[in-house]
Specification:
The chain is of the alpha+beta class and about 525 residues long. The chain is built from 19 helices and 20 strands. Helix 10 packs across helix 12 and helix 11 runs antiparallel to helix 12.
Amino acid sequence: MEQIFPGKVELLHCVTAGFINLSVLKEDDRGFVVDENKLKQFAQLDEINQYTLLCVASQGRFSRSGLVRQARLLLDVVSGISETGYTRTGLLRSAFLVSEKDNDIPGMAPIGQSGRFASMLARSREAEGGTGNAFSAMDAISTMDRLIDSALLLGLLTEKGKDECGESIFVKGSIFANLPRPTEPPFPKVLNIDAGFTVTLLPGLPLSELIPLMQFMEIQQFDTAAQFEITKKSVMRAFDAGMNHEQVLDTLTQFCPYEVPQNLCVSLEDWSNSYSSVALYKGYILQANKENAAAIERNPAISQHIALTLAPGIYLLDVENDVQAKALIAASGVDFIGTIKSALKPAESASFPTVWYGHSSVAGGARKAYAFAETEQEDQNQNIAALSSETDRAKHFDSMRDELEKLNLLPEQKEGLLDRIKRKIILSPVQLRGDSVRLERIAASGMDFSGKVHIIESAISSNSMVELEYENPNDAEGEGIMIVGNPLNVEKLDDDALIRIELIPQHEEKLFSIGKARMVKRIRGSVLK
């Protein structure tokens, strides 16, 4: 981040926290993802409102009314700064006066006093002889005091200098001088594209016009003039978001002062053809033959839910679950559609044992006895026990490994079964069943920080070794540095975590960063211990 945003990491933290608390960034099982609708709504605000809401939201998550009240307080204070500027004390006094003025407006709740609990608190203070205005004024001062640092980071405030007492003097930020930017075409031509698909972006566009550009470009370095790169991966991301190569080209043409390089146009078309050549869909498919296809397409209950026609008579529906699908079929009134068919394989069940019975004589009398026969597995176990020499047993287990290689199983399943063969748990080919192996995650890489920590912690609990891979800055071919050893413990920091590991074969204890590891892998068993 420091390389991409030199000198702006603190600002990046501030903006990220603001977007999380505004629900523009949301967390799911993949990490943080952008809520595209929320981002577009945010982009429609004027830029002063964008900066102000980010400034307030970077300090915490507030109710809608609390967010508006604090943003209004900040704007009122900043807009009231004189040309000579205010000290921090002057800004807090201004917040006090603004709060006093707002308290005189009927129907407007003071800052921090918009909820039922706040109203109860205000009434209790009045019963004790206090005043609601004194509470709101102090709340406004503390609110302004914590917003000043974020306002400096975001450019709403600028430090002009020092007064005779050494206190900083603040004036309106530089963003006020650069606004407003145009919100409707024609927009300034701010893009410069070279033959290597490197894009230089100059200031001048509003956020609403920058969002489509970010769909198909990768950030390289952010400064006054930001540098991006157009790659196949970034353009594929735009295709996934619903753009096509014509829209990408039109967006570039709109903001480029000259013609887009021809080699980029050709590449965009090639990438588009490659992207559209194969598609993987997930959802509910409705299939109809030629006689019923026309009836299906004319049916009003079904036609409005056809998201895509994959082929004649084959439709991708926009329903999300079985309940919605069944309701759609019921509403359509079509009686020739059966139940929902699935491609999932039915679960396999173990067969019942065979019961053998016979007669035996005991204590001079004959009686009927029932006994369970030895299973095929037990018979084979006895055959293995009958193998007299080490050579015979070795040949038997070698044949077991050969049988395992012939099976079409996942690598993790094969590794688990092979481990059981080594430990003499599996004794016959009948036991080579992939579904008997519980799949465990043994590796994590890239930005999956929580996954890396989980792999290491599971290795510690199972007394397994780990393999860490780090980038080697001295190797141009990208070969990493491999660290192998016994994990001892994990020490968590604010922005990273460290693993204390006993290196093998050196048997030295050292600390390594988990976040910087390119890959973390758990090694099964106790090899080399």
